[in-house]
């Protein structure tokens, strides 16, 4: 198994998976499925997996999965542990307050909050997938996906078949286009850039970025724009995510955007932010779109399942962007560790959708809300947000603590102070593999026993009763 630990349960029937896309989601699926004994081929259109730039925030619900897979040592080599966050105003630089992550709560989550370069995380997953025995074809373009035949046609004309196709090719990929989807709404743009550490430390005004160990992430709240900054991994280059009104420069993670356009967004920013913008290198500009939920992630015509942002696009730069993708892989692997018959495939794919859809939808709405919260225009709510944080700052409290913890009136800070705790409990504390195990115990085993009862039905049982029972099972499968 190379870098990764084998799973405790291996599928008694190994089948073939074709994964379209070698991004975070596709590689996580490859690792998880190989860990439980399935054969995996990954198809990636680019000739390299390290082209995407920028930083990556990895919350505990992500890191705990990699720790469980045996990748803790490798992850620590490329990452930097986050200790807290400092919240500032975009235009003036006023410090609204700081928050130090609660170590006890993080320990209970069984993960850590770490930062890395996106390319380093992807390289780690790529190397791990290969060491697990997955086959990865780079520079391979999928021209057509045929769910009913469970095959894909490459741009070369070659046809590849499998038992399951996993669509991990993103929100604009071929896989998602095969599903009914509504119109997306282009809300904002997000510029992503990194700054070499050696450039920052030469400027005394920017020394705050690396002062101490507790201020490891920074946020600036502005009028219709906001900035997140953090040291990105082992090399500790400083990563910037800049949210701003749409300006016509949006492209992809692999396309370099005009540096001048990014710097223009920072024209109204405090002096330190302007300086960081002038030191930034090779920015990319991604559209932040709100995308309607898909009704289903499993194609009606055949065993094609969507994962990652092909299933559930998040705002670019979201804290849960990589996390939900890796959770998808973990859940898919766990479910297919129970495979012993091809007749189970479709019901396990529906189970994947059942487990993941609500979780991803809920987290995505929160991510969108967080960005909107940081970009509030001047007004009563913006003033309330800032005043509540200032009050906590002046009282010596962590700024994201719930209002009950600081003695503030509940109504005064409603919607402002409790978000961090809700995230710790509901988002950071979530364990994707436990969720898959719980589904299997509650529903999967029950379904298997029901199938066994049908299989051993005595000859004197009326045919009509057997048919009715099988139809009932089919209904359960379709609802899963």
TrEMBL record:
SUPFAM superfamilies listed in its UniProt record: FAD/NAD(P)-binding domain
Keywords: FAD, Flavoprotein, Membrane, Monooxygenase, Oxidoreductase, Transmembrane, Transmembrane helix
Residue segments, region Disordered: 395-417
Transmembrane stretches, start-end: 12-33
Domain FAD-binding: 15-365
Top-level taxon: Eukaryota
Family annotation (InterPro entries): FAD-bd, FAD-dep_Monooxygenase_BioMet, FAD/NAD-bd_sf
GO MF, one example: FAD binding
Family assignment from sequence similarity: Belongs to the paxM FAD-dependent monooxygenase family.
PANTHER family: HYDROXYLASE, PUTATIVE-RELATED, MONOOXYGENASE
Listed name of the protein: Predicted protein
Source species of the chain: Laccaria bicolor (strain S238N-H82 / ATCC MYA-4686) (Bicoloured deceiver)
């Amino acid at each position: 198994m190379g870098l990764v630990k084998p799973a405790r349960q291996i599928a008694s029937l190994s089948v073939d998976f074709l994964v379209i896309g070698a991004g975070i989601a596709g590689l996580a699926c490859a690792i998880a499925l190989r860990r439980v004994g399935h054969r995996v081929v990954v198809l990636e259109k680019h000739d390299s997996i390290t082209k995407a730039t920028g930083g990556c925030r990895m919350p505990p619900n992500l890191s705990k999965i990699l720790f469980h897979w045996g990748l803790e040592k490798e992850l620590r080599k490329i990452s930097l542990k986050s200790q807290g966050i400092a919240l500032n105003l975009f235009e003036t630089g006023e410090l609204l307050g700081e928050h130090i992550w609660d170590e006890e709560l993080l320990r209970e989550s069984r993960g850590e909050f770490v930062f890395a370069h996106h390319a380093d995380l992807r390289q780690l997953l790529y190397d791990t997938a290969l060491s697990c025995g997955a086959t990865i074809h780079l520079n391979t373009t999928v021209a057509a996906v045929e769910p009913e035949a469970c095959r894909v046609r490459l741009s070369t004309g070659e046809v590849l078949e499998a038992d399951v196709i996993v669509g991990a090719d993103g929100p604009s990929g071929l896989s998602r286009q095969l599903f009914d989807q509504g119109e997306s709404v282009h809300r904002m743009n997000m510029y992503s850039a990194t700054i070499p550490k050696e450039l920052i430390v030469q400027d005394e005004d920017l020394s705050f970025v690396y002062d101490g160990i507790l201020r490891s992430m920074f946020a600036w709240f502005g009028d219709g724009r906001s900035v997140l900054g953090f040291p990105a991994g082992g090399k500790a280059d400083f990563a910037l995510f800049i949210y701003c009104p749409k300006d016509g420069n949006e492209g992809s993670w692999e396309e370099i955007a005009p540096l001048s356009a990014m710097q223009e967004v920072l024209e109204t920013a405090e002096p330190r932010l302007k300086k960081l913008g002038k030191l930034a290198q090779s920015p990319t500009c991604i559209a932040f779109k709100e995308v309607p939920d898909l009704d289903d992630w499993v194609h009606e015509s055949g065993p094609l399942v969507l994962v990652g942002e092909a299933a559930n696009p998040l705002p670019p730069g979201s804290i849960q962007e990589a996390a939900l993708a890796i959770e998808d892989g973990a859940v898919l692997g766990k479910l297919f560790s129970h495979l012993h018959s091809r007749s189970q495939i479709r019901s396990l794919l529906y189970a994947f959708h059942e487990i993941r859809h609500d979780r991803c939808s809920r987290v995505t709405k929160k991510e969108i809300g967080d960005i909107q919260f940081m970009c509030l225009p001047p007004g009563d709510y913006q003033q309330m947000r800032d005043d509540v944080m200032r009050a906590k700052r002046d009282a010596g409290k962590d700024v994201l603590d719930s209002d009950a913890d600081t003695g503030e009136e509940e109504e005064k800070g409603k919607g402002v102070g409790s978000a961090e705790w809700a995230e710790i409990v509901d988002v950071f504390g979530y364990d994707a593999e436990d969720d898959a195990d719980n589904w299997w115990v509650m529903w999967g085993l029950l379904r298997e026993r029901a199938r066994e009862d049908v299989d051993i039905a005595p000859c004197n049982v009326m045919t009509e009763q057997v048919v009715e029972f099988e139809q009932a099972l089919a209904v359960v499968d379709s609802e899963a």
